[in-house]
Records
---
Amino acid sequence: MSDQHPLSGLYIHIPFCKTKCPYCDFYSETSTALIPEWLQAVKKEALLYRDQFSSFDTLYLGGGTPTVLDETELASLIEYLFKTFCFAPDVEITIEANPNDITREKLSVLRALGVNRVSLGVQSFDEQDVSVLRRRHTVEESAAALGLIRTSGFTSVGIDIIYGIPGQTESSWRATLEQAVSFQPEHISCYQLTMAEGTAFWERQEEGLMRLPEEEESENLFLTTSRFLEENGYLHYEISNFARGEENRSRHNQKYWQHVPYLGLGPSAHSFQDGKRWWNVRSIKKYCASLEEGRAPVQGSEQLSAEQFALESLYLGLRTRDGIDLARVRSSHITDTVLPQLLKDDYVKITGTRVVPTKKGFLVADQLPLLFV
Amino acid sequence: MISIRNFSIIAHIDHGKSTLADRLIQYAGLVDARQFRDQILDTMDIERERGITIKSQTVSLPYTSRSGETFELNLIDTPGHVDFSYEVSRALASCEGVLLLVDAAQGVEAQTVANLYAALEHNLEIIPVINKIDLPSADIDRVKEEIEAELGLDAEEALLCSAKEGTGIEDILEAITKRIPPPKGSPEGPLAALIFDAHYDVFRGTVVSCRVFDGSVKPGDTIRLMSNGATHKVEEVGFFRLIRVPQKELNAGEVGYIIAGIKTVSDTRIGDTITRDDHVAVAALAGFKEVKPMVFSSLYPIAADDYQSLTEALEKYKLNDAALTYQKDSSAALGHGFRCGFLGLLHLEVVQERLEREYGQSIIMTVPSVQYQFLLRSGENVTIDNPHYYPDPASIEKSYEPFVKVSILIPERSMGAVMTLCLERRGVNTRFHYPTTKRIEITCEMPLAEIIYDFYDRLKTVTQGYGSFDYELIGYRESELVKLDILVNGEKVDALSLMVHRDRARLRAVQICDRLKEEIHRQLFKIAIQGAIGGQIIARSTITPFRKDVTAKCYGGDITRKRKLLEKQKMGKKRMKMVGAVEIPQSAFIAVLKSDNE
């Protein structure tokens, strides 16, 4: 953690999607009927935390699909948050957007409300991929949306893309990367497709109808991605995240990785403060009902022990190019045996006083943390 | 006047010994239906799960015969495994007769024969009982034929029962009273009581099970153990009726217990004679010998911190198991531990399981070994059971290994497979005997080491479960031995070393390398596993490193879940042993002990 106390982050979970994507395990409902009720509830929830969280320097509207909300709803939400909480003057306000929800009007309302970062769920610039992922937009719509975002005056744009999609080839993925770079976004998130339990893809995998790439191919895709984006001026600062320069890292997402406090409002949202983590119920109905009764819609919580905190710092740190502090490595077995071996095999390097994963290290980041315990 | 009958039930494993004991106990009314549970004499979990009796138990059954006479029938239950054959022989020495139980479907098996011989050695009255007659596959005529042909008994005298259904029980009780002779002995003579078992009671110390042959013993008497001359003052004597029932005295012919402030069971010797210090018996009862361990293995705590706790657990365990021997041992790979001696492989498994279950220990055991003898060029003779102390090969003049005589009973159709198995296991002097058509008894001489390594599992496999065997030690023979070392990334894992016959070394090395490859998880670097004799590599396998293992997304909702997964892996890691930078799971040490077909 840095020397000054970093300000907290505020996350709003907007649990509505017009259609469910078969790979996504974030909580959302396809009916928009509950939007008004949900909006009232979020406001009530915000009030509950008014004293506990004084000021934020990030606001992240995620989901779900935040752009399912119309201009009035978005304005009502954001204005209420501004009224309720304090925000730093340079606050980073991100909205996740779906390409075909975007209109010039909606974007200009968002700009006017202070939103200064748009993260667009493109997923792929390949038609076949987009159809495998059952997205409700075309590649053309994604490209048009990106143009619209730029011309609406947004100077911080992020693109989300996915690799390891069945049917995708190394060359088609490369083409998607090239397309993505051509829009000069400030931020690119490249997620390897994973099969999350409870999703439609997971079911298909269980039935043997769908398969993820083999280890070697997956390794190849990861390295290709990293190399290509670095050649194009992007910083590989976390396993799945690339920024065009240090200043374009996602300020909000880094809070998750650095144990900086954050408040998550909305169904299924997670919050963290003073070593305590809590999470909301994963149901709009229950969420609204709870707030109707004036109760926080918390489903569970945990207070991290020192050991748990350390373990989290370790694995979160080792997923980023910031790595972990050498001073944290205390056991002589690690310094005498493990670390030299990892250095020799090029899994980590030492930068200043930090142990930093290399690309090869990123590839096996799930294996690294326990070697330092 | 109450008449006494002392008897035992002997049977091949699974022929229903414990179930029959249950029925006899129920018939005697020692326990009401509500409190009853199956295998009532098998008090250990491991006995109940495996359906075997490890520790003998004794119970006195009151019985009134059809003619109105009252009896005290002492059932001396015996362990049902060849590892405990000495204990069985002492239990039999305490009886006048046995029920020889034969499964109506399985028929006579190797241990039925071995048990019969043991009973005959003690001149016991033998009552053949055919059990499980309720089974659809029961073939009473065939079994009767086997009893005549293979056991040489009169099948006309065999009783029929189904212990499970409770049929034929009274006939058995009647037969015990009529056919088994009452005990002889002189009540006025000097005390001579045979110790056939001892177990430890936390409150009372050692409870000695014994059969009084001559004289009597009562609280206040000073008894003397004839093997070592130790004396103890008797606190309590009594009968076993599932619980201990104190009596004024134990008299000639009776079976019961003595509590005399004896601290541990190791202070008593099974087979020893108890006499009275003030009226010493002229001679000890025959048949006493010191039991010697046959199989050796080292035992280590999984976490080095648990050494103290393991030490305490072993001390406590030893209170109740005189047959186990142990001394300190240490290994570069596994730290401090103990070298233990066992009666056989089952005894080893029992100790391991009980230490884990009843004493909460997590342990790793090394490959079991027999005791080898070496004649060194210096003329010195050494006996070694631990590969760690294997002599410098250049100094060895001759090596010797223990041989056993194995008798195997199989269906005719398994002949080829079993002969091959015996040949593989270096069997010699093989002989065949056809007790009945379709059945073959094979006897051969084989190194003990070949028996303790998965022989029983293999025999069961090649005979589709119908083969059975029994063995006895016949002495040491010259043999060409080598020490096989296992190296992980060039580092010798001392706990995996073993002594083995030269001809078997390569096969064992390949098996172990393959096993370890399955058990050691992939890590971040390549792992080479090698089997070597001296500097010569005779087998190898390689574990490829991880190429990619990382979760794509890690935001607010993923952090707790991911930490929990790591915490779980971290717990698993505590059970790993580090060899250099390689993590070897406990399961790898266990896997090298297992046979191929498990």
---
Amino acid sequence: MRFVLVAAAKDIRRRMADPAALSIWIGLPLLLGGLLSFVSSGASEAPPRARVLLVDQDNTALSALFPTAVRQGNTPIDLEEVALDEGRRRIDAGEATALLVIPAGFQDAVVGTGSARLRLVTNPAERVLPAMVRQMLEVVVEGAFYGRQLFSEPLSRIARSPQSGPAPDADVAAIAVDINQRLTELQGVLLPPVITLSVKTGSGSQPLNFGQLFLPGMLFMAFLFIAQGMSVDVWDEKQEGTLRRLLTTPQSAGRLLLGKLVAGIAVASIVACAGLLGAVALFDLAWSRVPVALLWCAYVCGALLAMLTLLHLFARSQRGSEMLSGVVTFPLMMLGGSFFPFEAMPAWMVAVGRWTPNGLGVTRLKDLLYGDVSATAIGLAAVGIGIPAVLAFVLSWRRLRSFANA
Amino acid sequence: MIDVQQLRKQYGDLVAVDDVSFRAEKGSIFGLLGPNGAGKTTTISCISGLLKPTSGRITVSGHDVVTDGPAARRHLGIVPQELALYSDLSAAANLEFWGSAYGVTGEPLRRRVAEVLALIGLADRGKDHTSTFSGGMKRRLNFGCGIVHNPKVLLLDEPTAGVDPQSRVRLLELVREQARAGTTVIYTTHYMEEAQDLCDRIAIVDRGKLLAMGTLDELRRMVGEKDLVRLAGRFDPAAATRALEAVDDVKVLSAAADVLTIATVGASRKLPAIFTTLASAGSDIHETTLSVPSLESLFITLTGRELRE
């Protein structure tokens, strides 16, 4: 074990003697992250909201309820009441998401038996937000329909009440009695509810900003660079003659390889530590999540290093091995959520990418940082990544001597 | 002490080392002399455990290198033909690492590193990166890495190849110092002079076979008192060989269309008769070289080829 640490310390010192390579491993993911963040209009911007211009031509108690209803709750809609001319001018100028016109006679249509047509004009330059407004309006209209079916009698009483001045106490009392009776009749149907809606909110349910989404992928991009750079060291040692010399010492090939893994894990841990501390500072990541996340990063980077080392040991030349590892590493980065977060990737790509070693690593790291994940899920992922890594290590061990002599 | 018995290493149909046996005692320098491709490095690789012998047995200080490899390798020090150093580490860091690889640690390691740096003349450059060293300095450090753990057996595979004369002299002196300190040294070279000057016993190898073995005097006696005559020109090999059979005590070692090699006693006196005979056989001689008995002439006697061919 002592020699494993000595060999690892030697490799770390050699890496430190080459700061250019180290800065590329760490700097490139940061640069890409920064660029993507810039392209995506920044990491900390609030989610977009729809601006809806409302023209109320009905001016009744019911039409006045509409903006109140929209403003309640956490809807992503900002409602602004305007005159029809101004509304048309602003929607034509693209200054709003939609223009909603409540026509005169709207209340009569809802409480009576007639009909009214709500008019919604949307901004063609926007796609998602107008669709959200349309859906919300459909829900409101559907609600009005069922309300009219259930409370037709009280509503017709309201419709028949005088248009000016307060309604007589007798009418108000009669309407209240009607509504209460109707609700009593419906109690058997409505209560208890047939469908129980259970809303489970995770502790990390706050929407993630771009920086939070990109951090795990960025870390794993750095780990892939580290694994690629440090695994090619078997070729460097072969070219320098030190690999053959090492194999003439009493130390086993397994210890030599283990030393290289420990060195790679140490470098990855330093990078992961810096990334996670950055997350604590920038994204208010809980300190308690850092140790397990750090262990996970170190573990997966070690596994990636073991797998890439095997790849190098079967290449015929150093140039070939570097090309081969590049051919493997870059698709892994693309698929495994390192270039772009899974949330921004097509579904088919996510389906494939989540099963790559780094994709599995990114997914679980995200869970460890921002969500809830069971020990079983982490354990299964660890086994999924660990089995090929152990196999790669054993094969590398067996291959090393013939690789050195070739 | 090292004992090699009937060592054979075969790659498919190619026999790189064929039934080689030798034994080197404590404090002695044993030379493996032969041209490139003779099987010297393969023999060293088998001893050091890099290659597994096809058959035969090798023991280092009583430990079998195949069945008890780590224990055998613990007693070995290797100075490979090619430099084997970490160019991005300092000289001291290199020595520390190779010492650690043989289990030397702590204060004894630090003391030994300082000793070796002084021994190889790099005491004032210990903290410098190896990449800044000259070729000769790297060679000396390469040697230092092989002795930092005080091995009982030291394997040197052509350690002076490509080294300037000054560094070569220093390296050979370092090898002698190791032997004087009780280390068994196995020294491979294709430089005849090095083998003659340095080695207590020498084995001449060619094409995987051990052709002759003994002290320098024993090997010289094998050649006898015969001088070696090398004639360059144009020959009919068969006719020239037949014609020379008529000249007393002349042995044709090799005959080609452009070179003829002959062994004979008192060659200078016999040259006129040799020239006359060859002229009658239709030969045309352009150049004549005469050498007194040596390892070179023994090698030519044994193989019909020059050592550097």
